[in-house]
Amino acid sequence: MVAMDDVQKWFGELHVLKDINLHVKPGEVVVVIGPSGSGKSTLCRAINRLEPIDQGTIAIDGALLPEEGRKLAQLRADVGMVFQSFNLFAHKTVLENVMLGPIKVRKKSKADAEKRAMELLKRVGVDSQANKYPAQLSGGQQQRVAIARALAMDPKVMLFDEPTSALDPEMIKEVLDTMVALAKAGMTMVVVTHEMGFARTAADRVVFMSDGQILEENTPQEFFDHPETDRAKDFLAKIL
Ligand code: ADP
Ligand code: MG
């Protein structure tokens, strides 16, 4: 579903993605972990070309990501993204936030978009908030709306970049539970997170990044119980 081959990226002198090869199968859940500054966000952003790459190729469901243009917009619509900051439109209601993309990009009718949006809001447990504005919701509710909004585009893969890092502790679980349910329903997911409980329960594979490189790739069980590199051992010692 996602194929990154020999991907290199520099920010000026800084080599942020060093020969990244990452393949994600349909339905697979890959959790990306690693120290701050190791390139996790850049990797996520590269997957839907929010960040251009300098070398290598990235394909979504077999289609190579072009540099720009209408085809890029189309392919980007296949990749849902949820960020640390919820990025909802403040002047639109929850329901309008979820309806907007399907109407504008997928050319759905208003009635179809609304029906689907309500289904998705229900699925993430915030349907009772549909007519409120984002600021009237808790952080956890806003993040679940952001997930519903991404799902409304019928993405082939969902990217999550530290989706719970900005949340108060009591709201982290409701967002993680939503993500676990999505994983169980068969969604292909790439998740950057420091939530090791989520990685253990939901990940098919853990990817450990350090200094722009993928240093380890393993099942969560193997990775957490038997990290191979000193850098992974150090990292785990600090966060566990
Ligand atoms: P992570 O998400 O793992 O914390 P990032 O992908 O955000 O790491 O950043 C990787 C490295 O690239 C860091 O050293 C960061 O400072 C640098 N970086 C990120 N974005 C930019 C940018 N737009 N311009 C220059 N350097 C950047
Ligand atoms: Mg980051």
UniProtKB/TrEMBL annotation:
Subcellular location: Cell membrane
Entry keyword Transmembrane: no
Domain ABC transporter: from-to ranges: 2-236
Predominant cellular place of this UniProt entry's protein: membrane
A matching Pfam family: ABC_tran
Keyword check for Cell membrane: yes
Membrane topology reported for the UniProt record: Peripheral membrane protein
UniProt KW keywords: Amino-acid transport, ATP-binding, Cell membrane, Membrane, Nucleotide-binding, Transport
GO MF terms held by the record: ATP binding
Family (UniProt): Belongs to the ABC transporter superfamily.
Protein name per UniProt: Amino acid ABC transporter ATP-binding protein
